[in-house]
Amino acid sequence: MLLPGLARCAHCGEPLVATEGSTTKPHKALGQKHYFSQAYPCPTKATRGTGACDGQRTSFSSAKRMERTMLAALSHALGQLSTSTLIARRSASRPRRR
Questions:
Q1: Helix and strand tally (H, E) in the chain?
Q2: Which residues form the Recombinase zinc beta ribbon domain (predicted)?
Q3: pTM exceeds 0.70
């Protein structure tokens, strides 16, 4: 789970929280099969109900898609930075010595 605190609910703006769950279902070949899922639900909706926020609950596939999208955006942003730009920014943020 990569995004807790980074991704926000599109409806109320609260940071999405990471949740994990599992369930067991009958399986022909295995008898029982465990399924695991991950999601980023809106905490406002989860604690105060749909009256407070009609926000989304992202499913496992949506969580994976969100993480891939965020990693691609981060990779792109980091790829745009050059070493000289980073050095110049760091130098500019340091207080000058007298």
A1: 3, 2
A2: 2-56
A3: no
